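Morning F.,

Quick status update on the modeling queue. The single chain you submitted on Monday has been processed. Sequence for confirmation:
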Amino acid sequence: MTLIGWAQIALFFLVVLALVKPLGSYMFRVFEGTPPLPKAERFFYRLCGVDPVKEQAWTTYAFSLLAFSFFGLLVTYAIQRLQHLLPLNPQKLSAIEPALAFNTAASFTTNTNWQAYVPETTVSYLTQMAGLAWHNFTSAAAGIAIALALSRGLTRSGGAGGGKTIGNFWVDLTRATLYLLLPISFLYALFLVSQGVLQNFAPYREIATLEGVKQIIAMGPVASQEAIKMLGTNGGGFFNANSAHPFENPTPLTNFVQMVSIFAIPAGLTWTYGRMARDSRQGWALFAAMAVLFFAGVLGAYKAESAGNPALRELPRLQQDRGNLEGKETRFGIAASTLFTTVTTAASCGAVNAMHDSMTPLGGLVPLVNIQLGEVIFGGVGAGLYGMLVYVLLTVFIAGLMVGRTPEYLGKKIEAREMKLAMLYVLIFPLIILTLTAWAAVVPYGTGSLANAGPHGLSEILYAFSSGAGNNGSAFAGLNANTRFWNLALGANMLAGRFLMIVPALGIAGSMVDKKVIPPGPGTFPTTGGLFVGLLVGVVLIVGALTFFPALSLGPLAEHFAARAGRLY
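Structure tokens below.
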């Protein structure tokens, strides 16, 4: 570990911190105040037949989200199956086979962006833009909408906004896209082009290397997809090498900006939430809890990768003074690679500038744990906020039990219905991951895709289903997921991890929105101080440990101790 490495981590966090208030304030004005372009907004509402004044109950809000996502999935599936008949296919790529098309459509619909294929040899330019990049906008906007809906349920006084209503899904979706994602992505894409990221419709080029070997250089509209991929915490990549590819991430500056853009909206939403709660300290408490978990992860990964591979320590004449550089770009180095790894898995983005499969056992443990904590360490756009708010309710409830008082949050009582929904939200996640992992680990069509045996092979399976259910999209690269079983299992995994968790969150919003606000009294547990932040972090860690520690013990932890003992699988 070096001083320059520490400086990169510190500078990154300071820039994110500086963006919290201005970006959060802008989002509050967009979603809860007067929109900047009301005429343009009304045009889209008339075009779609939406009444922007009419708010929705949580059931209607949820139905709107599910219907929109379902039809979006069908459109993306159709584009992939028909891409050989559609324009903007200069490489004459054939139709994508059904299981892979379903997996990809489910992946991008759920903001996961898991890719079980080589993009530059599988999908056309039209599929990249009209299918995948379009979902990058809409799935990110949908996540923001859910966060706003739960925030309204917690912060509105009984009867405000129309009784039991939590907003209008179509309005939230439109405003998130029109005022937030589109304008920033436009400027962001221009910046990436200025740094050397591709943006064209040119056919692939064949060149000759200095050795005289012919090589195909892929082209395409990369910058436009790269911008929303990062800003919307979508992940995926235009090229198979993802953000390790020089045409996607050419310079240290683009690498830094990409990391900042991953955290920008999730961090800013904590300030937006504080404004909605009419107490900015509520938002800062959430930000502080996320920051503590983030720093624990990045420092753990940096230390593990800087120490080198434990399996190689005893080899004579082998120096690892520069750490474990396997699977990393030397132009980024250990610090920028581990920081990117931590950021992308803390924010359910899934973009990578280094191969997680090549990390040390403890270094690879960090991104896996980041995902398994429920993607609440800033999390995806919107998803991190509504996930952390569910944990806030659990924390307040547990604190109330410890002191023997009725739990309250923002003056509203937390009762049995909210706790049942919160526990449903928390338990669905490990149930999906552990059940599918156990299945894949004992059947030949599951293990047949592994490149490694032993604990590392189990880690590859566990990571795949954790990444899918957590809507992250990154992977341990030793797993060949492009088989019928893996495409169908991971597709169902991603859909369940997204929508079976969104529905309970919206149920909590509907249950809390019309409750009367009780003025704080002597027994009210404060939810803005260091004690609450510590309890919130503890609840997140304890829930994660209780559900996943046994599986982690058989995977990365077993691999670490085996490597230290000189045993290789």
